[in-house]
From TrEMBL:
Native source organism of the sequence: Nocardioides marinquilinus
UniProt entry keywords in alphabetical sequence: Aminotransferase, Pyridoxal phosphate, Transferase
Domain of life: Bacteria
Family membership: Belongs to the class-III pyridoxal-phosphate-dependent aminotransferase family.
Pfam families: Aminotran_3
Pathway assignment: Amino-acid degradation; 4-aminobutanoate degradation
Protein name (record): (S)-3-amino-2-methylpropionate transaminase
PANTHER family, per the entry: AMINOTRANSFERASE CLASS III, LEUCINE_METHIONINE RACEMASE
EC number: 2.6.1.19, 2.6.1.22
UniProt KW Transferase keyword: yes
InterPro entries: 4NH2But_aminotransferase_bac, Aminotrans_3, Aminotrans_3_PPA_site, Class-III_PLP-dep_AT, PyrdxlP-dep_Trfase, PyrdxlP-dep_Trfase_major, PyrdxlP-dep_Trfase_small
Enzyme type, top EC level: transferase
Co-factor requirement: pyridoxal 5'-phosphate
């Protein structure tokens, strides 16, 4: 079942036709019908960016139940980096599902779990001895990284940053910066979480270097927490939900050096940035930063729920036997999917493909910024790119225009997302197997949508 064809240039053997095509209004009648059913069955607190109900997805396309095909610039939030139903993922999952679906690794173990841990130890930054533990979601991985860090250091405090996003469980809500929609009404939150200022070059009052931004964060930590109380500093090498914020060069290395000097563990939350998304296996590699622990999820398993904490063997081993685990963590079918996804990333050269997507998109986004004046900053790495929408000539966020642009993209057949503390970041997360012709078409449509929206 494994195909050797390059899905970036050819029609995949399986999956929807690689075209953008709207055949009804958006959402169409069948989606509206399903949406009405949903209203009585699904809790209102669960939202959907674009309520078209999906029938099939693959390559660079999501097709809905009305037959509309959207160009996928979301990848299910940076998850389907290898594309939906990637043949290497599907064939391994099918074989595993037929053999057995669950024993619980804590009850009776299996090879797939071990192989995923070996693979992630190999792929994460640094050539020291590493070990890993597997979980179901990103938030669960972050929680477990904190558990490991607290046991290893014998300290309580966890340092996070402005604009950070780490999940929706109680501890990770506390670690997440933004109130609405993630935290409102859900307290009280976990204690011993402290927030330091981030390096956010576009929003600095005056330009400062990465080293200066790190010194500012460190001063906050030392004065408000005390280095000797800090178990770990948890940082996204490029912030995700917070606005695709790329810290100034030098910020992460300076932070890493301070952590090393004070026996504080550096935890890189690479849940969104990892697994080829930014043009490297992990985003820390762009600045030669070697974290003590790395959290991995989203893109790791081709759409299946799998997450990991990977780190220094002696740190991971600090926890007593039985202290880490969970009923489903490292489920065998999810592990098979992860091994298939890694095979696809290697065989299709998807880190390189992410860099090619950056090379194609960045100049177009910059030209759009120059031409329209409503994009204050274009940033990101690889296939994790964003445009920050502002009132022309200022840094004042324009969340209303961002929402209008996003809705107009949906109406034009692009599946796009927004993010950011101020709701004004238009973000692009195409599958790394996005065919060239669809990426080019998406950029043309984006130009037209922005022009038409600004004229309206
Ligand atoms: C998505 C995300 C999480 C949470 O992952 P879930 O699987 O949704 O729990 C944590 N950290 C970062 C950086 C993320 O992007």
């Amino acid at each position: 079942m494994t195909t050797t064809a390059d899905p970036t240039t050819t029609q995949p053997a399986t999956g929807p036709e690689q075209v953008r095509r709207l055949v009804t209004e958006v959402p169409g009648p069948r989606s509206r019908e399903l949406h009405a059913r949903r209203q009585t069955a699904v809790a209102g607190g669960v939202g959907s960016v674009l309520p078209v109900y999906v029938e099939r997805a693959g390559g660079g396309v999501v097709r809905d139940v009305d037959g509309n095909s959207f160009i996928d610039l979301a990848s299910g939030i940076a998850v389907t980096s290898v594309g939906n139903s990637e043949p290497r993922v599907v064939s391994r999952m099918a074989a595993q599902a037929e053999a057995f679906t669950h024993t619980c690794f804590m009850v009776a173990p299996y090879e797939g779990y071990v192989e995923v841990c070996e693979t992630l130890a190999d792929l994460t930054p640094g050539d020291h001895a590493k070990k890993a533990a597997l979980f179901n979601s990103g938030a669960e991985a972050v929680e477990n990284a904190v558990k490991v860090a607290r046991v290893h250091t014998g300290r309580d405090a966890v340092v996070v940053f402005d604009h950070a996003y780490h999940g929706r469980t109680n501890l990770t809500m506390a670690m997440t910066a933004k109130n609405l929609p993630y935290k409102q009404g859900f307290g009280p939150f976990a204690g011993e979480v402290y927030r330091a200022p981030m390096s956010y070059p576009f929003r600095e009052a005056a330009p400062i270097t990465g080293e200066q931004a790190a010194a500012r964060a460190i001063a906050t930590i030392e004065s408000q927490v005390g280095a000797g109380n800090v178990a770990c500093v948890v940082v996204e090498p490029i912030q995700g939900e917070g606005g695709f914020v790329v810290p100034a060069p030098g910020f992460l290395p300076a932070l890493a050096a301070w952590c090393r000097a004070h026996d504080v563990l550096l935890v890189a939350d690479e849940i969104q940035t990892g697994m080829c998304r930014t043009g490297a296996w992990f985003a820390c590699e762009h600045e030669d930063v070697v974290p003590d622990l790395v959290t991995v999820a989203k893109g790791v398993a081709g759409g299946m729920p799998l997450a990991a904490v990977v780190g220094r063997a002696e740190v991971m081993d600090a926890v007593h036997a039985g202290g880490l685990g969970g009923t489903y963590g490292g489920n065998p079918v999810a592990c098979a999917a992860a091994l298939g996804a890694v095979a696809a990333m290697r065989e299709l050269g998807l880190a390189e493909r992410a860099r090619a997507i950056e090379a194609a998109m960045l100049p177009r986004l910059r030209a759009l910024a120059d031409r329209t004046g409503v994009i204050g900053d274009v940033r990101g790495r690889g296939a994790m790119l964003a445009a920050e929408i502002v009132r022309p000539g200022t840094t004042e966020p324009d969340a209303a225009l961002t929402a209008r642009l996003n809705a107009a993209c949906h109406q034009a057949g692009l599946l796009t997302l927004t993010c950011g503390t101020f709701g004004n970041v238009f973000r692009f997360l195409p599958p790394l197997v996005m065919p060239d012709h669809l990426l080019a078409e998406a950029l043309d449509v984006l130009d037209e949508v922005v022009d038409a929206t600004l004229r309206a």
